[in-house]
Amino acid sequence: MADSASPSGPPLRRRSIVAAAAWTIPTVAAVTAAPHAAASTPPEPVGPPDLLDVTGFEAVRCDVVPAGTVLFRALDGTSPAARGASVTVALPPGLGFSAGGSSAVVAVGTEGVVSVPAFAASGSAGSYTITATYGTAIAYAPGTVTASPGQVVELTRSPGGANQQPTFSTAVVPGVVDGVHGAISGDELAASAGRNAAVLTADGRVRYWGANLGAPVTAPGTLTFAGAAVTGMVFIDTWTCVQAGNTSAGGIAAGAGADSVRQWYRTGTGTGPLTVAAVTGITGTVLAAKSNDGYSYALTSTGLHWWANATSGERVAATLIAGTAGASAISTWSYRRANGVLVFGGGILRADGGVSAWNGSHALTALGGAPADIVEFQAGQSTVYALTGSGELWTQGAAFTSSPGGAGWILRAENVATTNAWTYEGYTGGVYATTAGTVAQFFAAQPAGNAYRTEARTIPAGVTLTKVFSTDGTYLALASNATVYAWGGNLDNSGRSQPALVAGVTNATDLNAWGYHGPSYVGGGYVISSIGC
Fold first, then answer.
1. What was the pLDDT predicted at 358?
2. Would 90 be classed as within a structural domain?
3. Number of domains composing the chain
4. Cβ atoms 386, 376 nearer than 8 A
5. Does residue 496 lie within any of the structural domains?
6. pLDDT value for 216
7. In this predicted structure, what is the pLDDT of residue 493?
8. Phi-psi sector, 303: left (phi>0), alpha (psi -120 to 50), beta
């Protein structure tokens, strides 16, 4: 089985930053990390304690998040908690208060506002959860940390079976010492086996390498157009054809401007130039860019644009899909079957919060009944996964036909902090980590007897996962302490393994991954390695 390339765009916010409670936050001053004396005795509580998360945070690794960025609201019943009451705030591993420590007692302010003191984000990139406790009430505020620039190191899995613990070799990518974000893809068939990657540097240049992109990992290329290096890029994606004997690969890079989108293509092995085309016909501000075998996409403030990948020339025209203005996210997939037939599709998170999908053409079909407040979603050949602002994980699609609830939207898990899934034909699997730190692997398939099921995965005590990656048979996870864990086998495989530390990988502040099986399990990825803050 093959699965689509791993996520390659900057991570979406895991939660919305405004809670559902209908109230306005007053202007607040930063509070100290200990309660202060009230002018008079606080009134008796008028109901059971309650706590709402109001705002989360986004930060670049090593940033200090200012006091008051993260807010909670404490309640007694339905009324604001008394000013001066105490709320305990705990930070997860990878975050630390500027005043020291990972726990602080914060005084409730006006209208029940709880202002979290300043803290530093020193952990790896990914999702974090701040916990607040008021009496018996507990609330969680989400946060996202993105990588600071660092050395890029490629990971390659040794081919193995479902009952073998994955092992990896590493290769430093020379000269790419300021990588911040990228994408990697690959295939598994001996006649065309290869992997291809592209990484953005701190100044927005594109550095690339791979068996089919014309530059080896030992001498990465720099993307150019019209004789000059491409700069100012924000979004990036790559693809590798998985059809036996087909050595095609490509990708996309884009800045924020409508005229900044560049798509590249190459077929063959060995060294040589790329075909790089400027994409015309795009309007609005770019919000996301994706590239797959066959088609590429740019989501902008005016809607979703698509085009057939240019294989020659310096220009290619995009088509705008009507009615997609205001959409906030896209997820795309494609691959070529053994006979060369291209299958493709994707999904879009519409302006009204609903989800539409396309499959085999670019005509959109609304997927009715989607949950409210979707903040992340992932579309596959027979699945859609959606994560809501409250941490609910929902699924939809034909791969769940034999599962309770069938192919409609079904709630699968709650309090999910981060998740990732793979889909191939009618099969799907993945992994999620919860706000409590537990980790579960899941699997489902369309044929009878393959109902959705989960199985716990054991992570060492004191380790918090910030990102998880699921490919067909190979699973990787990034921890806040800059280590990487891997395990192998799907839940329909015997002898599947538990997570184990990937040897030789240290100071990993970001991670990306790809993987397939057919029949051996293969895969890999890259890490961005940074030391200290």
1. 99
2. yes
3. 1
4. yes
5. no
6. 94
7. 87
8. left
Please say whether the beta carbons of 75 and 81 come within 8 A. yes
pLDDT digits (tens, 9 = 90+) for 290-315: 999 999 999 999 999 999 999 999 99
Residues 6+ apart with CB under 8 A from 519: none
Q: CATH number, domain at 129?
A: 2.60.40.1930
Residues 6+ apart with CB under 8 A from 24: none
The tokens describing 306, both together, are 């698509």
Task: Give me the numbers of helices (H) and strands (E) for the chain, helices first please.
Answer: 0, 47
Regions in the chain scoring below 70 on pLDDT = 1-45, 189-192
Q: Phi-psi category of 272—alpha, beta or left, where left has phi over 0 and alpha has psi -120 to 50?
A: left
Length of the chain: 533
Cα separation, 234 vs 254, whole angstroms: 6
Domain of 139, in residue numbers: 49-146
Residue 82 lies in a domain: yes
Return phi, psi of residue 360, to 5°. 85, -15
Half-sphere exposure of 191 (CA within 13 A, CB side): 9
In a domain, 184, yes or no: no
56 has which bridge partners? none
DSSP state of 399: G
Q: What is the pLDDT of residues 308-343, one digit of tens each?
A: 999 999 999 999 999 999 999 999 999 999 899 999
What whole-number distance in Å separates Cα of residue 290 and Cα of residue 346?
10
Backbone angles phi, psi at 57, to 5 degrees: -150, 160
pLDDT at 21: 28
Written as one letter, the residue type at 49 is: P
